[in-house]
Amino acid sequence: MCTVESLKRLKKWLFRERQPTWPVIAVDASGFSVGQRRVEWADVHAIAAFKRDLITFDDVWFRVEDAGGPLLICEEQPGFASWEVALIEHFPSVAGWREHVTQPAFAENFIVFYRRT
What we know:
Layout: H1 4-14, E1 25-28, E2 31-34, E3 37-40, E4 46-53, E5 58-66, E6 69-74, H2 80-90, H3 97-102, E7 111-115
């Protein structure tokens, strides 16, 4: 039997704001971790970035590759600002990424910023 209170709880649950639960990016001198995944700066093979146009906003992602395979990092993840600073410090070719990835609008703008040769 449904009560008014249980209907209110159901409505609240259905219409709650759903925020993604991003794993935190933790940076240190030798590399960074995202959840259980660890990447050493010295082991990075490639760095690329791209944008997804989601109509009302853009979603910017970095793809970092090491021996463990690709790792995707979103600019919305906690710790991104510190990671971005460290990334540019270790890979200066990434500096200025925003101009290359965010413009023009409505384009994916996939760009490789670093590839180990």
